[in-house]
Specification:
The chain is of the alpha/beta class and about 425 residues long. The chain contains 15 helices and 13 strands.
Amino acid sequence: MTVNKHILASQLAGETIGDGLVVLPGQGNSLAAESDSGIVLLDAGTARHFPRMIAALRAVTDQPVHAIVYSHGHMGYNAGIPLWDDHNAGRGESPARRIAHRNLLARYERYRETLDLQARFAYMQFPSSGPLRQKIDLLSLHDPDEVFDDRLVVVEGRRRIELLWAPSEVDDALVMWLPDDGLLCAGPVVTGHGIPNIGTPLRTQRFTRRWAETLERLTELGAERLLTEFAGVIEGAKEVETVLKSTSAALLWLRSEVVRRLNRGLDETEILADMSYPEAMFGLPWMRPGYGAADYIVRDVYREETGWWDRNPTTLHPGRPSEVSEAIAGAITDPAAVITRAEQLADAGQVQLALHVIDLVALGDGRRPEVADARRLKADLCRRRAEEVEPYVSKALYETSARLLEQGELSWSSIPYDA
């Protein structure tokens, strides 16, 4: 496959990718496209991104910003909208049109209802980016003033710019299609960070078949270039088609394989243990683990087709966590032996098995000295496990879990706002 030097690497950060087309360094790759009506901007970024975005834009064009398009409703991608309004006002220009898919309105309503939860998710998934209070302050939402359902022409003239509904990572995702340039701006549909991030541990379902069908529809556009969300530009109609079709085929294969095992009566852990992933599908550069992983997708398909029960009758109506941990602790006559066994497994390179074993003690009453020892070991095991796995989110969750354990805590409700 032929792609430019940026694919699966870093964002383009201010590069011009065509006449009147510049990629701005937002939350992902934001595209500023000149048109007869002014600049059409895909995603406004945050206050942190804004200075670099403005500098990159004004280095190449003085056109007014006519419209800002929301690629999807995840927080951060358009938190900087007010700064763009201020920019226009300072130039004596009207505020830019704010355009999104209709489903984004419901997403924003849900995010406002669950703001603290979203901030906790951000703290857990991006552990190096500041305290919980700071994350809450950054998660600002600014409603669009125009919405559409399936397709919207933003501007016509010498450069036609269209928006197409593209349900994938979320049901409010869209792509920006520039037919005169043969350029498809894929947003969250094609991230450039490897396999689609379906089944991410902290997020709602993303529906594997829906994403695959969107990729198939986008293939029909015949795009000659594809701007990914986080990496670079895929060049050439055949190359674009290859990425879109192969990704769709792999997603549909995963769904088929999970359903086949569900029909045999396997539960989630049995399916995960039984799966293997053909190198011809999952060894491709755009299908490698990154933000997503094949086994994440397996779990998401499982959730689509079955309920919450893990098939263990013990968990149908569980006891209180504190009572359960005390009961288990009372059944273990030698907690030190459990800790020793976990250490032996870890020393033998079986870190995941060591985690299973250490939980027999680590989930107990933190005031017990043996439990404190077990939690310290579990924190170390989490960091070691983070080195073993490929998906970014798993690495991050092991790291934040280790931090929590080192603070003597088990519950994510213990995350402090200002630490």
